[in-house]
């Protein structure tokens, strides 16, 4: 497969070539843009920005095939908007690599929850939680998450959080304890710096209703696998609970 041109993201005053396609999940239909080349079958190249003032993701430019030199892809897709468009539809992961580190941004409905950077050659991991985490988790859990991310390779805060979850009858405690066991063999730094030789653009999109996915990222729980029975059971219970709630509201 031909290497596909990545989207661009302005973050903290610098431009990055990102893994991820933030137009995924957008409720506005994508116009029938022609393929720009074999390196851009999707027919567009988006330019994005995370605004420092509100930690929100915006689409600021949409380049499309243009033989006449006067097409404005952003205006074609969002004709009623002027200027940039907040990406309230996007939830999931965006990432990029540089000479010395890999950086991840975790977003929920266009709002930045977490920034995490890991150095390729050292064990230095830098993280930043934003106030938007409060939209998903209560303040007590925010404190635990902040402690975990403050020292990602220390199992202590995770085990304390797991005890708290157990005391509240929350089965996420099992997942957290399992993560601590797994990370005895591989540190968070090792997990985040595994080389990725794929030549496609990872979509990065996550269903915003999949709150457990966001919790796993913030709590430093390794990505789920087909063998992750506890995760599958939690999802099933969540589905049954949602179905019961919907039936009760009818």
Report on the structure:
The chain is of the alpha+beta class. The protein is built from 7 helices and 9 strands; from the N terminus they run ββββαβββββαααααα. It has a 5-stranded mixed β-sheet, with no helix packed on it. A hairpin with a 4-residue loop joins strand 3 (44-51) and strand 4 (56-64). It starts with 6 loop residues before the first strand and ends with a helix. The model has no long low-confidence stretch (mean pLDDT 84).
What are the SSEs and their pairings?
Layout: E1 7-11, E2 14-18, E3 44-51, E4 56-64, H1 73-77, E5 85-86, E6 92-97, E7 101-108, E8 111-119, E9 125-129, H2 139-150, H3 155-167, H4 172-182, H5 188-192, H6 211-219, H7 229-249
Parallel strand pairs: 1-3
Antiparallel strand pairs: 1-2, 3-4, 4-5, 6-7, 7-8, 8-9
Quick tags:
globular, five-stranded mixed beta sheet, single chain, 250 residues, four-stranded antiparallel beta sheet, alpha+beta
Unreliable stretches? none
Q: State the major sheet.
A: 5 strands, mixed
Overall 3D geometry?
Answer: globular
**Spatial strand order of the main sheet:** 2-1-3-4-5
Strand content: 15-25%
Report the strand count: 9
Number of H- or I-type helical stretches: 7
| Element string (H = helix, E = strand) | EEEEHEEEEEHHHHHH
The span between the termini is: 49 Å
Structural class: alpha+beta
Mean pLDDT: 84
Q: Radius of gyration, rounded?
A: 20 Å
Task: Give a short synopsis of this structure.
This protein has 250 residues and is of the alpha+beta class.
């Amino acid at each position: 497969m031909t290497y596909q041109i990545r989207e661009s993201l302005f973050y903290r005053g610098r431009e990055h070539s990102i893994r991820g396609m933030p137009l995924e999940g957008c409720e506005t239909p994508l116009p029938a843009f022609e393929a720009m080349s074999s390196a851009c079958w999707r027919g567009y190249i988006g330019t994005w920005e995370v605004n420092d003032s509100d930690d929100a993701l915006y689409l600021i430019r949409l380049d499309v095939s243009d033989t006449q030199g006067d097409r404005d892809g952003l205006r074609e897709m969002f004709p009623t908007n002027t200027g940039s468009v907040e990406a309230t539809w996007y939830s999931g992961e965006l990432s990029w690599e540089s000479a010395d580190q890999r950086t991840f941004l975790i977003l929920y409905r266009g709002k930045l929850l977490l920034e995490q950077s890991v150095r390729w050659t050292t064990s230095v991991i830098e993280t930043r939680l934003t106030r938007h985490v409060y939209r998903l988790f209560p303040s007590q859990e925010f404190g635990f998450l902040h402690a975990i991310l403050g020292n990602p390779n220390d199992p202590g805060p995770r085990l304390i959080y797991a005890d708290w979850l157990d005391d509240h009858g929350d089965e996420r405690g099992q997942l957290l304890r399992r993560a601590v066991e797994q990370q005895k063999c591989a540190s968070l730094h090792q997990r985040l710096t595994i080389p990725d030789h794929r030549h496609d653009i990872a979509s990065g999109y996550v269903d915003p209703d999949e709150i457990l996915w966001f919790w796993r990222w913030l709590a430093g729980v390794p990505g789920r696998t087909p063998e992750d029975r506890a995760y599958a059971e939690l999802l099933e219970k969540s589905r049954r609970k949602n179905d019961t709630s919907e039936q009760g509201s009818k």
